[in-house]
Specification:
Elements: H1 10-48, H2 51-73, H3 82-89, H4 98-113, H5 121-138, H6 143-162, H7 165-176, H8 182-203, H9 225-255, H10 260-275, H11 290-293, H12 299-318, H13 326-351, H14 361-380, H15 383-394, H16 400-417, H17 422-429, H18 434-445, H19 449-452, E1 460-461, H20 466-475, E2 480-485, E3 488-494, H21 495-508, H22 519-523, H23 527-534, E4 545-546, H24 557-566, E5 571-576, E6 579-585, H25 586-598, E7 615-620, E8 628-633, H26 637-654, E9 656-665, H27 680-686, H28 689-696, E10 700-707, H29 710-720, E11 725-729, H30 743-751, E12 755-760, E13 770-775, H31 779-785, H32 788-791, E14 799-806, H33 812-829, E15 833-840, H34 844-854, E16 859-864, H35 867-872, H36 878-885, E17 889-894
Parallel strand pairs: 1-2, 8-9, 8-11, 9-10, 11-12, 13-14, 13-16, 14-15, 16-17
Antiparallel strand pairs: 2-3, 3-4, 5-6, 7-10, 12-17
Helix pairs in contact: 1-2, 1-4, 1-5, 1-6, 1-8, 2-4, 2-10, 3-17, 4-5, 5-6, 6-7, 6-8, 7-8, 7-15, 9-12, 9-13, 9-14, 9-16, 10-12, 12-13, 13-14, 14-15, 14-16, 15-16, 21-23, 26-28, 29-30, 34-36
Length: 897
């Protein structure tokens, strides 16, 4: 194995940044030309046909095509793209590839050319980052260097989008990366410069003044400062409303029974209808020229246009359409600036204040440009970026001071009301919270190998025999030991080396020297016996790994992690000048992360550590097109198919997605991240979901995790994937005296916030026609009945037997009322024959069991709304007793908490 090389030289990084800037600039030019070309066809269509017909038609078709492209090829290309880049820069598993760049480019051309009120500059940031990711795949490097290239790509994308190289660098530092290291700054500057040059040479200026503005100079006087402060306050307040409106729009779209193409098509249709009502000069959304075009209207019309553009941006952004918020924020800000300017002129006219008396048209220009920066700052929480973007686009130094006043004021007001940029809130809405992990990452990235390595080493001489070495390993807590020869580090030996050596010796032993054994018996031969019998005279030097991968004491922690993951090694020697100074294991890395989180130095015994987070070893993702998500943990291959069939039927009926999870439990003495596991059988089990996906037409995601605790892993997935319903097998009883349903199921029922459905399969695992549904007159059965349409979807002519079990002293009217209510609920949801049965019995479980037998029922459906209600009916553990005694399938539904 080769020696570890040092980090890439700065010269190579600069060349990579130049290539990224070149490709990002070309992509930005292609995007601009494509949007302009398609937008031209759209405007031509509005001239040939009535605008009220042509514009909505273009919007719906373009949005639908873009949605189909994203849904089928790259779901990660939806939306602005900047939240995805932020997540990738935080080391989250967010894909950024050439395929995503292509889909982003094409779909953005379709949506913006079709007239959706979004901008090009957000997508160019994701384009640049995806191009940088592709370059890093062509020339593999460490995660730390790849992160710097992603930042350079994002900066180049923004610089090319606005022809503003300084703003591109500032945005990366201020919003995305929050890192001002020399290499990061250098690569970002180079990529931004190259991207802006390419964009300007091939695509022209992004923002140009109208002929009537060419001779106008922005004007600023100190007496107008209160009005610029007012502009900043208004921009800050409206920026917060804007962000919350986007989040509300996302929630509304999620409740609709629509796929991504349908959502974007509706957004395009609505945008076309409303834009058709605006003046013809404002129907081109492809550029920032609306800024000066709007100045020609009265304040009444500007206010109307502001409200329409504000709402259309929320409609488009909530649909998941590819497009950015930079251009809409700047345009809305300019309109807000005009309105404040009208207010100042009104006061000047009626109160005779000396405001803008000598400025003329330059007065309005200054307020428009200051408003652009203020609203941009309130939305993105990047005041420096806002100031520099407007300055670089206009190249007017006289606007810097009013820009600073309004932008900083807007930032302070918005941050005081609601902290975080729009991108942070969008990530949080999707269950991604970057701030803690970024802070941890910033702390961890400063650590070196010397900070985490184990200095008190156990070593072994190269002359030690394999038999003696094996005995030494049995007494040691370590699974790998450095090998020394006259005090010089020459290699490393691990427990896997003994295993490989033993297998090799067995394989080369003549057949007549071995007793006849089967393949299974052969695999169970004790390694100690093999080594002791076959390697008494061989030494460690014969089996060790020579010249292993090593690091230096000053190498950063991200570099250490990269080499351990790339070569799948659990022990990494630290060598300085051929001298072994320490060794790093995965347990050392986990210990350091724990110390950084807690701020305390704990006992470094991994066996005493608490449960670590589960480790994701395999996953597949499908388009996120459902209204909700069902989680199905799989463990028993015998019932997995029935469980998946049931879950798929519910998902189809509810328009939900399916999330299939397999958890591989490992010993608490080993970290899930460093435990070697085989996933062959698990992946074979997950392959059973493919026919269901095709037959039911639903999105199915799969994942395999390694964890100390199965319930903890399931809870992680429920939280991270926003699960609405958890469906799990249940054996129908427990052997643990202090448990009600079993250790895992008890933990899920108590802690999972979503609906939980437990299924104990009967002798015939298929759900057939006859269902017994006990009612208690309250919400218990109601919650279970809500899921009946999906549960009965695959049954023919179902019958529902609704029963009410009451004590002899309960008036009959109570039972009749409860049964009538339950029958009405069932008949409203499913087409089936219903029967009402009222029983007096002191034992609920006996009554339910007897009714199921008498009516030849296939399924017993029990309901409960929360853990407390279950405890109230646990006299003798009623659900467990019914499930244990019944040969039918028993389904227990617990409502969301």
């Amino acid at each position: 194995m080769p020696h570890l090389v040092s980090l890439r030289p700065k010269q190579i990084a600069i060349l990579e940044a130049s290539l990224i800037g070149l490709l990002s600039g070309l992509a930005a030019v292609m995007l601009k030309m494509g949007v302009g070309w398609l937008g031209g066809w759209r405007l031509a269509g509005a001239d040939l046909l009535p605008p009220i017909l042509a514009l909505p038609l273009f919007g719906a078709i373009g949005g639908g095509l873009a949605g189909i492209l994203i849904q089928r090829l790259a779901p990660e290309a939806s939306g602005s793209g900047i939240p995805q880049v932020k997540a990738a820069l935080a080391y989250l598993p967010m894909p950024l590839t050439g395929r995503i760049a292509f889909v982003k480019l094409t779909s953005t051309i379709l949506t913006l050319g079709a007239g959706l009120t979004l901008g090009r500059q957000g997508p160019t940031v994701q384009l640049g980052a995806a191009i940088a990711s592709q370059v890093s795949n062509w020339f593999p490097t460490s995660p730390d260097h790849r992160r710097q290239l992603l930042a350079a790509g994002a900066a180049a994308g923004l610089a090319a989008g606005f022809n503003a190289p300084i703003a591109g660098v500032l945005f990366v530092i201020e919003e995305l990366l929050q890192d001002v290291s020399g290499l990061t700054l250098g690569t970002a500057i180079v990529a931004s410069f190259v991207g802006a040059v390419v964009s300007r040479q091939l695509g022209g200026q992004e923002f140009t003044f109208s002929p009537s503005w060419m001779s106008i100079e922005p004007y600023f006087n100190a007496i107008e400062i209160p009005f610029f402060v007012l502009l900043g306050v208004l921009a800050g307040l409206l920026g917060v409303v804007f962000i919350r409106g986007i989040l509300q729009s996302l929630k509304i779209y999620k409740r609709l029974h629509l796929s991504l193409p349908g959502k974007i098509a509706i957004a395009g249709l609505v945008s076309g209808l409303l834009v058709a009502l605006l003046p013809a000069t404002l129907r081109d959304n492809a550029s920032l020229q609306e800024v000066w075009r709007t100045s020609e209207f009265s304040w009444h019309l500007i206010l109307l246009i502001f409200a329409v553009k504000f709402g259309l941006t929320l409609v488009a952004m909530g649909s998941g359409a590819p497009g950015g918020l930079f251009a809409p924020s700047l345009i809305l800000g300019s309109m807000l600036g005009y309105l404040v300017c009208f207010l100042a002129q009104f006061l000047n006219h009626w109160l005779h204040l000396p405001i803008g008396t000598q400025a003329g048209a330059g007065f309005a220009v200054t307020f428009a440009l200051a408003g652009m920066g203020a609203f941009f700052s309130a939305v993105t929480r990047g005041p420096m970026t806002a100031i520099v973007i407007v300055f670089e686009m206009t190249q007017e130094f006289s606007i810097v001071l009013p820009l600073m006043i309004s932008s900083v004021t807007a930032y302070l007001v918005a941050e005081e009301i609601s902290k975080g940029s729009v991108y942070k809130h969008i990530l949080a809405w999707n269950g991604i919270h970057l701030k803690p992990s970024q802070q941890l990452e910033n702390r961890l990235s400063k650590l070196t190998a010397a900070d985490i390595m184990t200095r008190q080493l156990e070593t072994i001489s190269s002359t030690v025999s394999i038999v003696d070495a094996k005995l030494l390993f049995t007494r040691s807590q370590h699974h790998g030991l450095p090998v020394l020869d006259d005090g010089k580090f020459i290699g490393i030996v691990t427990s896997s080396d003994f295993t490989k050596f033993s297998e090799l010796q067995i394989a080369t032993t003549p057949i007549h020297d071995m007793n006849p054994v089967t393949k299974d018996e052969l695999s169970a031969i004790n390694i100690n016996d093999s080594i002791n019998g076959l390697a008494a005279i061989q030494t460690i030097a014969d089996i060790m790994t020579r010249n292993p991968i090593s690091v230096r004491s000053h190498d950063p922690l991200p570099q250490v992690i990269y080499w351990m993951n790339r070569y799948h090694i659990g022990h990494l020697p630290v060598v300085d000048r051929s001298q072994l100074v320490g060794i790093i294991t995965r347990a050392d890395i986990i210990r350091v992360e724990s110390e950084q989180l807690s701020g305390n130095i704990q006992t470094h015994d991994p066996r005493l550590a608490k449960n670590e987070p589960s480790y994701l070893v395999y996953q597949t993702r499908a388009p996120a097109i459902g209204r909700g998500r069902i989680l199905v943990p799989l463990s028993n291959p015998d019932t997995a198919l029935q469980l998946l069939e049931l879950a798929a039927a519910i998902a189809q009926q509810r328009h939900y997605e399916l999330e299939c999870l397999i958890v591989i439990p490992v010993s608490r003495l080993r970290s899930p991240a460093e435990t070697t596991v085989s996933t062959v059988e698990e992946r074979r089990l997950l392959r059973k979901v493919k026919p269901l996906r095709d037959r039911y037409g639903i999105s199915i995601h799969t994942q395999i995790r390694v964890s100390h605790d199965i319930a903890s892993a399931i809870l992680e997935v429920v939280r991270d994937r926003h699960i609405d319903l958890l469906i799990s097998n249940w054996k129908g009883g427990t052997d643990t005296p202090d448990r009600i349903f079993g250790e895992v199921v008890d933990a899920l029922i108590q802690q999972v916030r979503c609906d939980v459905m437990l299924i104990k399969w009967g002798i015939n695992a298929k759900l057939r026609e006859r269902w017994l549904i006990p009612t208690a007159g309250g919400p218990n059965s109601s919650r279970a009945i809500q899921w009946l349409p999906g549960l009965m979807k695959n049954t023919q002519a179902p019958e529902a037997f609704l029963c009410h079990v009451s004590a002899p002293n309960i008036p009959p009217e109570v039972s009749i009322s409860a049964l009538n209510k339950a029958c009405n609920q069932v008949q409203l949801r499913v087409r089936c024959i219903t029967h009402s049965i009222s029983v007096c019995n002191t034992s609920i479980s006996d009554a339910v069991f007897n009714l199921a037998q008498q009516n030849d029922c296939d399924v017993i459906l029990l309901g409960a709304t929360q853990w407390g209600l279950l405890q109230q009916v646990l006299k003798g553990n009623i659900p467990e007793e019914i499930a244990r005694r019944s040969t039918q399938t028993v389904i227990l539904v617990r409502g969301s908490l």
